[in-house]
Amino acid sequence: MRNALRVAAALTALMLAVLVPRLAAQPAETAAPAHPFDIVRTVLQSPRCLNCHVSGDFPRQGDERRPHDFGVRRGEGGHGVAAMRCATCHTDRNNGAFPGAPHWGLAPRSQSWEGLDAASLCQTLKDRRLNGRRSIEQLLTHMSDDPLVAWAWAPGGSRAPVPVARDEFVKGIQAWAEAGAPCPERRP
Fold first, then answer.
1. What's the chain's Rg over C-alpha atoms?
2. Are 48 and 65 in contact (CB under 8 A)?
3. 39 by DSSP, 3-state: which?
4. pTM for this structure?
5. DSSP assignment string, 40-100
6. Beta carbons within 8 Å of 33's beta carbon, 6+ residues apart
7. What is the Cα–Cα distance from 79 to 72, expressed in whole angstroms?
8. How far is CA 5 from CA 1, 9, 11, in A?
9. Helix, strand or coil for residue 151?
10. Could you list the pLDDT tens digit for every one of the 188 residues in the chain?
11. Contact, 140 vs 177, CB < 8 A?
């Protein structure tokens, strides 16, 4: 009996010595998103996007989404108040401590994504009355090609980019659009 246990233990050790390194060397499979909107939601609900897609009267900044320094306010058209226009500090490209991209400014209040669950975010994004009168195809173009949107992947300074690679996001939003832009169900 002892010999049988020793043989079994030796065989187990041999199998582990051979199989474990092989399994560890294999690339992990990437799990498919549970819903076609998941990749889109992950990007749009990151601080890089939410800091300017606000419902309130001021932008936010940083990964912690603190109120913007210097008491900056939305102002007419979402580009700041007199003497504190967004373009005063935010040029068309990152510049030292100041992030920048063309047409820097707050999104209209109708395009606020703060506090929305995935289903509400998806519905807001698709609603032409709320999204700048864009069709799904126009949203796809905007999110794939607009330099301000692209800034989220190269924010400069110590800012973290959005948590999904840009090419993966573009593929994800294309897949969502091709699937008919379905929205996830609301959770109770």
1. 23
2. no
3. helix
4. 0.78
5. HHHHHTSHHHHTTS-SSSS-EETTTTEEPGGG----GGGS-STT--HHHH--SS-BTTB--
6. 39, 172
7. 10
8. 6, 6, 10
9. helix
10. 555 445 444 444 444 444 444 434 444 455 555 899 999 999 999 999 999 999 999 999 999 999 999 888 988 888 888 878 888 889 999 998 899 999 999 999 999 999 999 999 999 999 999 999 999 999 999 999 999 999 999 999 889 999 999 999 999 999 999 999 999 998 76
11. yes
How would you classify the pairing of strands 66-67 and 60-61? antiparallel
Measured in Å, how far apart are the chain's first and last C-alpha atoms?
A: 58
CA-CA distance, 20 to 13, in Å (whole number)? 10
Supply 107's token pair. 């999104």
Question: Which residues pair with residue 61 across a beta bridge?
Answer: 66
CB atoms within 10 A of CB 154: 13
Beta bridge partners of 98: 95
77 is written with which tokens? Answer: 């058209």
Q: Is the distance from CB of 86 to CB of 79 less than 8 angstroms?
A: yes
Contact 120, 37 (CB under 8 A): no
